[in-house]
Automatic annotation (TrEMBL), chain A:
It is found in: Cell membrane. Belongs to the binding-protein-dependent transport system permease family. LivHM subfamily. This is Branched-chain amino acid ABC transporter permease. Its main location: membrane. The keyword Transport applies. The chain crosses the membrane at residues 12-34, 54-81, 143-162, 190-210, 272-292. GO terms for molecular function: L-isoleucine transmembrane transporter activity; L-leucine transmembrane transporter activity; L-phenylalanine transmembrane transporter activity; L-valine transmembrane transporter activity. One of its GO terms (biological process) is D-alanine transmembrane transport. InterPro entries: ABC_transp_permease, BCAA_transport_permease. Signal peptide: none annotated. Keywords: Amino-acid transport, Cell inner membrane, Cell membrane, Membrane, Transmembrane, Transmembrane helix, Transport. It is a multi-pass membrane protein. GO terms for cellular component: plasma membrane.
TrEMBL record, chain B:
Belongs to the ABC transporter superfamily. Keywords: Amino-acid transport, ATP-binding, Nucleotide-binding, Transport. CDD domains: ABC_TM1139_LivF_branched (cd03224). This is ABC transporter ATP-binding protein. It comes from the Bacteria. PANTHER family: HIGH-AFFINITY BRANCHED-CHAIN AMINO ACID TRANSPORT ATP-BINDING PROTEIN LIVF. Coiled coil: none annotated. The keyword Transport applies. It comes from Cryobacterium ruanii. The keyword Ribonucleoprotein does not apply. InterPro entries: AAA+_ATPase (IPR003593), ABC_branched_ATPase_LivF/BraG (IPR030660), ABC_transporter-like_ATP-bd (IPR003439), ABC_transporter-like_CS (IPR017871), BCAA_Transport_ATP-bd_LivF (IPR052156), P-loop_NTPase (IPR027417). GO terms for biological process: L-amino acid transport. Residues 2-234 form the ABC transporter domain. GO terms for molecular function: ATP binding; ATP hydrolysis activity; branched-chain amino acid transmembrane transporter activity.
Length: 298, 235
């Protein structure tokens, strides 16, 4: 096994991990405030991929549109899902929201099947994005570079927004203590809406990146990445944005490492590996890497 | 200023407050004392819009506030410093204070009030960029009070501000309450530390199983031997 091979796997792992990180941010923000595991999050990524595919196949428009339009549309979609499916359940037991999110997930998947087709479609990027560059024996595509750049820029923007803006401050307060936030006059519906808008926008971006990486899209493609991204958020410490990013990247690298360094017959177990990893992390650090303990939360 | 008439609040089938009537006039400190589960906190939470009453009327400055959202009630001028302090431990002290003024539009006024809070509670200024979770219990209580003052309330609801604090800090907190009143604030104070609370308040209500059993000027309640033994646990 050469050094190059190891570095190559690292690049692949980072690329996958940054997509998990994008998805995990939305999940962790929503969980932080509502204690909701939003199973429909990955399905927004799928919708984003489909929207993106419209612009990919239309060769006349710049590739930028294939990233931006799904990002913006999913932001709107996330808000619609929140207001129609979850908002009526405020104050209901958490399990009611959980089951609803499974229902929303199924609704989105099956509506897509009905409206389009259950058949997978090709998602082929323009040639120059997939062209490989060779830097010191490690192969990059322009897509890899675009992925890293996009993820880094989005994370810096999001962190600034969460840390500096008034809404960001309200979101952090709501995530820490929803009751106290309401008492001091924060409109928590606004904070919750913001979490959905921001998180779903990132899921839309992730839709473009995921589809570009695998070259194929189908109506059920979002569910497993969504669940894995939740695993990433839990590993990082649910409720923490920094944790979601670190958890996502770690999970991506670990998953690719599992596939890349073990004999090929193991690669079918990659999903099992991801969930085993979750169990181990939860045993060793129940609050995840950057998680607030319940004591601090209370 | 605040008028509660015949309030009835239940959690499902469990009645927490029934036929409760209570008045707070401008410039007063009014204390509500009573044992655990007597309905003190429930009453405050209903006033601040966190709970909806089954029946009864709550009016503030002559207008009904029943059914309004907590944020609307804050905007009308009622601020609630909750039991257990509930500061945002992962946010800085400055951020906690800024959030207290969340619904205010006058940035300049907010800044002035922030300075005022730092004057009133110097320990908060020294540690203003630290996370609130690093403060001691007494300091967190001061932050909780300062945070609720940041909305510039005309009525302050204080729920158990002395809970879990060392006697010296309890003194400090009550001093702050008196100081606030001297500056013209109106305060509805809920306390288990009845002796102290009665000493600094103008009038008081004794709550028992969700309803008012005794009311009157605090001085009379302190000196009523029957009451001291029966309700206040003093002798």
């Amino acid at each position: 096994m050469t050094m190059n091979y190891i570095l190559q796997q690292l690049v692949n792992g980072l690329a996958l991990g940054s997509i998990y990180a994008l998805l995990a941010i939305g999940l962790t923000m929503v969980y932080g405030i509502l204690r909701l595991i939003n199973f429909a999050h990955g399905d927004l990524m799928m919708l984003g991929a489909y929207v993106s595919s419209i612009f990919i196949s239309a060769t006349v428009v710049p590739i930028l549109f294939a990233v931006m339009i799904p990002t913006l549309l999913m932001a709107v979609m996330g808000l619609i899902v929140e207001r129609t499916a979850y908002k009526p359940l405020r104050g209901a037991p958490e399990v009611a929201m959980l089951i609803t999110s499974l229902g929303v997930s199924r609704l989105i998947q099956n509506s897509t099947v009905l409206a389009l087709s259950p058949q997978p479609r090709a998602f082929s990027l323009p040639g120059d994005l997939t062209k490989t560059m060779n830097v010191g024996g490690i192969r990059f595509t322009q897509l890899d570079v675009l992925t890293f750049a996009l993820v880094i820029v989005l994370m810096v923007l999001l962190t600034l927004y969460i840390n500096r803006s008034k809404t960001g401050m309200a979101m952090r307060a709501s995530s820490e203590n929803l009751q106290a936030a309401r008492l001091i006059g924060i409109n928590v519906n606004w904070a919750i809406g913001a979490a959905f808008v921001l998180g779903s926008a990132l899921a839309g971006t992730a839709g473009f990146l995921w589809a570009s990486r695998y070259g194929i899209i189908d109506p059920f493609m979002g569910f497993l990445p969504g669940v894995k991204a939740f695993v990433a958020a839990v590993i990082g410490g649910i409720g923490s944005i920094r944790g979601a990013v670190v958890g996502g990247v770690l999970l991506g690298v670990a998953e690719i490492g599992f596939v890349g360094f073990l004999p090929p017959e193991f690669s079918g177990y990659r999903d099992a590996f991801v969930f085993t990893l979750l169990l181990i992390v939860l045993l060793v650090r129940p609050n995840g890497l950057f998680g607030a303990s319940e004591v601090e939360r209370a | 200023m605040l008028e509660i008439r015949n309030l009835f609040v239940a959690y499902g089938k469990i009645v927490a407050v029934s036929k409760l009537s209570l008045t707070v006039n401008e410039g007063e400190i009014v204390t509500v004392v009573g044992s655990n589960g007597a309905g003190k906190t429930t009453t405050l939470r209903t006033v601040s819009g966190m709970l909806k009453p089954q029946s009864g009327e709550i009016s503030f400055k002559g207008r009904s506030i029943v059914g309004l959202s907590p944020e609307a009630i804050v905007t009308r001028g009622i601020s609630h410093s909750p039991e257990g302090r509930m500061v945002f431990g992962r946010l800085t002290i400055t951020e906690n204070l800024k959030l207290g003024a969340y619904n205010r539009k006058d940035a300049a006024g907010v800044k002035i009030d922030m300075e005022r809070m730092f004057e009133m509670f110097p320990v908060l200024e020294q540690r203003k960029s630290q996370r609130a979770g690093t403060l001691s219990g007494g300091e967190q209580q001061m932050l909780a009070i300062a945070r609720s003052l940041m909305s510039r309330p005309t009525l302050l609801l204080l729920d158990e501000p002395s809970l879990g604090l060392a006697p010296l800090l309890v003194e400090q907190i009550f001093d702050v309450v008196v100081e606030l009143r001297n500056e013209g604030a109106t305060i509805l104070l809920v306390e288990q530390n009845a002796n102290e609370a009665l000493r600094i308040s103008d009038r008081a209500y004794v709550l028992e199983t969700g309803t008012v059993t005794v009311e009157g000027p605090s001085i009379e309640l302190i000196n009523n031997p029957q009451l001291r033994a029966a309700y206040l646990g003093l002798d």
